[in-house]
Amino acid sequence: MIRVESLTKVFRRPHTFSGPLGPLRTLLTRRYDERTAVDGVSFEISAGEIVGYLGPNGAGKSTTVKMLTGILTPTSGLIEVDGRVPWRDREANARAVGVVFGQRSQLWWDLPLIDSLRLVGDLYDVPAARFTGSLRRMCDLLGLDDFLQTPVRQLSLGQRMRGDLAAAMLYDPPILYLDEPTVGLDVMAKQAVREFIAETNRLGRTTVVLTTHDLADVEALCERIILIDKGRVLYDGGIDDLVTAYAPPRRLVVELADDETRTFEIAAGRPIPELIAQVAAEHPIRDLSIREPDLESVITRIYAESER
Ligand SMILES: Nc1ncnc2c1ncn2[C@@H]1O[C@H](COP(=O)(O)OP(=O)(O)O)[C@@H](O)[C@H]1O
Ligand SMILES: [Mg+2]
Fold it and tell me: Which UniProt keywords apply (predicted)?
């Protein structure tokens, strides 16, 4: 469904000189600052997959999504989405994809939510009967009924995000791009968003590309992740494989009599009772537990390794 090959985006900005003659020098000197936001990324995503596109701030996630939607033109490389080149065939591509940017609503700020949704229906030429059915489904899935008549500017962030999700899926696109859809949401709203994504994928076999730095989103939704940093792919594969391949050691967490908590690495192959006995011989233990490596610690480790 989505094919990306050696995708690269370099942003160029006129270099600005500082100092008293700075603005003049900036005008007269043609120099550019270049920033490679996406640096030779390749991946393929099949119909019906939910893929987590992960990376720290500035990794190039949003830039990738913008190229997938056709908003940005790649500097080099190739993208094909459902047989189309997004930046060349922007309109047809737009009809095939729903997009939500968590940081920026696509809805009309001053209009009641329902009017925004109607406008989306018109823009995408959704026939009236289909629109009604689609709207009903979105209202049920996302619980929109209570605030359909509220102007978007008055919605809470969680309500607005649900409105944005409805707008993105009203015309039944086979692909959904979500760029940080849970950023800033409370636990309940995050849960609603996750359930919607899971349902959408399950019911319509919608292909979902999800960027986030909330690993709970990924754990709830994705079997596969693509991990990027500094515009490059560090890992592409299953979450389970990732944890197996990179798993940091488990840890023994010990609560001591004086309320101090200490953790000890459980070296691979070392019998745990032996470690406990050793720790107990040296410290008065009140309680202990074993902490399994979580996705976060695995990912932190991958970033640390790529840094070296
Ligand atoms: N329009 C732009 N002009 C110049 N630099 C940009 C622009 N958009 C993004 N960048 C830079 O590209 C890099 C990747 O940004 P982005 O794709 O937004 O990262 P992410 O979404 O992973 O946080 C960052 O260093 C960012 O500053
Ligand atoms: Mg971003």
Answer: Antibiotic resistance, ATP-binding, Nucleotide-binding, Transport
Find the 70 Cα to ligand 1 centroid distance in Å: 16
Could you tell me the distance, in angstroms and rounded to a whole number, from the CA of residue 65 to the centre of ligand 2?
A: 9
- Ligand 1 pocket test: which of 9, 33, 35, 64 has the largest number of ligand atoms within 8 Å of its C-beta? 35
Spell out the SS3 assignment of 35-58: EEEEEEEEEEECCCCEEEEECCCC
- 275: DSSP letter: H
pLDDT of residue 112: 97
How would you list the strands of the sheet with 76-81, edge to edge? 32-45, 2-14, 76-81
pLDDT at 35: 93
Name residue, tokens 């729903």: 98
Residues in the chain with pLDDT values less than 70: none
Kindly give the distance from the C-alpha atom of residue 157 to the centroid of ligand 2, in angstroms, as a whole number. 17
